[in-house]
Amino acid sequence: MAVSKAVMLMPRGIQVCVVALALFTATPSYAADTSAVGVHGMVVSESEDAARAGVEILKQGGNAVDAAVATALAVGVTNPAACGIGGGGFMLIYIAKAHAFYALDYRETAPLQARPDMYMRNGKPDEDLARDGILGVAVPGEIAGIDAALRRFGTMKFQQIAAPAEKLAGDGYAASPHLAGEIAQLASKLKNDPGLSQVFLKPDGSAPKAGDMIVEKNLAATLKSLCDDPVRNFYHGQVASALVAFMKARGGLLSAADLTNYRPDWRDPIRRRYEGHEVYAMPPPSSGGVVLEMLGALDSGHLAGLGVNSPPYLARLIEVMRQGFIDRERYADPDFIGVDVQKLLSDTNIQQLRERALHPKEMRPPPAAHDHGTSNLLVVDKDGNVVALTTTINTVFGAKMSVPALGLILNDEMDDFAVAPGVPNAYHLEGERANEVRPGKRPLSSMTPIIVTKSGVPVMTTGGSGGPTIVSGVLQVALNILAFHLDAASAVAEPRIHEQAAPDIVIVEQAMPPATRSALEQMGYKLKVVPNLGAVGAITMAPANLRGAFDPRKGGGAIGY
Ligand code: DON
């Protein structure tokens, strides 16, 4: 490694430190710049077209909630492998005028006919039934959530907000490199579904290339048909009839009663302090509490002195992540299982977590790293309102099934339940009874958008996609900003690690410098090196100085104005 002239001129002791730092740190360079600065507002999304849709709404006078909803509908068109009107999500909202936070849970819900043993065959759990197929489908919450947010805080009607998404779907959009890659990887499965193959594959069955146009005419028509009363038209009207008829024909469980009964839930946001900040997160069934527990365990930890991504810092992260993921098994749908969040976030529990992290006992046997379903987006408007939203159809292209006439891709969110205690799901997360299937219940989620305040004012927001790596990714990006004072672009670009207790192996991005990796191995950690871990976006807010970045691992962008 070349040591610069400036370093050669430094005193010997400082030279050693600078060279050591250079060995252990390296910010990877990515092809596209996915960051931006803004004065009045900012939208960050994994799809630049979708971020543009949000900014268009802000410029028309819409607020952060209007813009977030427009972005969510648009990204449902431009990254249909990740999210859409067949899915559901979480919205964490800060309304500046009220100095108040709101948490909207519009997650998919198990159908009324669902049963705890519905994935058992011949006495054995068959995990595949919860994915890739009709039995994986849970009741979609996306449109109900969007409607609830708009009715409570929006300033515009559904059709005005949906217009950019309808245009993208009807006129077509250029496939992003990410989407083209996902389609190519899943082409053999997409071929089996008439709706998906017609829209996403070429007539000869091959996958489109990045930049090729994709048109979703039927989805455009469905969005238009929702008019300005999307809940009535989606859950009670023609969309419901078409969806239920499709389910009946294919042996699915979702019924008309499931759709008419679906309600989004306004829940109380949860919060905990970290180094003079208040961190607000989604309550269960989100894993927001797990991120707060981990941050709590690292509070007053003098991390800055250790150095970003230094081996001693990463060792502390690994231990805290492991214990946090062990605690994750205590989270579930609070409408079915008592989840004592106050206790989990108490100083006592966090002190115990910290002590367990110092004396690790559990060593269990590595998860699949690739998976970029799910979409996170972040919006700040000129009045200081903030929305952090994560939405999903679960795995890439959800159940790999669509209702062709509606252009609607079905989720496979049932896989987020524990199909049986100890049986790992698509993300190698093992579940317990608390997260077993029950009719009307919502599965535990790793999605965890957060907003952080200092002296009562939001200073940053982040959220991500990537199954359980959302939890570790949000944690690391938040720490990169709060503890190491990196800007948004560097905070999301820094290499990341992931440890989820079971399997007990540390997953490390290949961009992590080799010297750091061997230092961790010398400490006794078993590592698995992967190209990328999830995708995380961030915005930092200072007066008239907004800095946003989406994760260059997935593409997309930030647009400020
Ligand atoms: O809610 C959850 O935890 C999952 N359905 C999220 C799935 C996800 O992030 C997919 N991929 N990267």
Give a brief description.
With 561 residues, the chain is an alpha+beta fold.
Number of helices: 20
Oligomer: single chain
% residues in beta strands? 15-25%
Which range best describes the helical content: under 10%, 10-25%, 25-40%, 40-55%, 55-70% or over 70%? 25-40%
Sheet/helix structural class: alpha+beta
Q: How many β-strand stretches?
A: 23
Determine the N-to-C terminus distance: 40 Å
CA-based shape: globular
What is the rounded Rg? Answer: 22 Å
Could you tell me the mean pLDDT?
A: 92
Strand arrangement, major sheet: 1-22-21-17-16-11-10
Major sheet: 7 strands, antiparallel
Low-pLDDT residue intervals, each spanning 5 or more residues: 1-9, 362-369
General description of the model:
This protein is α+β, with helices and mostly antiparallel strands and 561 residues long. Helices cover 36% and strands 18% of the residues. The chain has 20 helices and 23 strands. The strands form six sheets. A seven-stranded antiparallel beta sheet has the order 1-22-21-17-16-11-10. A seven-stranded antiparallel beta sheet has the order 9-4-3-13-12-2-23. Strand 14 and strand 15 form a beta hairpin. Helix 13 crosses helix 15 and helix 15 crosses helix 17. It is globular, with a radius of gyration of 22 Å. It starts with a helix and ends with a strand. The N terminus is likely disordered. Bound molecules: 6-diazenyl-5-OXO-L-norleucine. 6-diazenyl-5-OXO-L-norleucine (DON) binds next to loops.
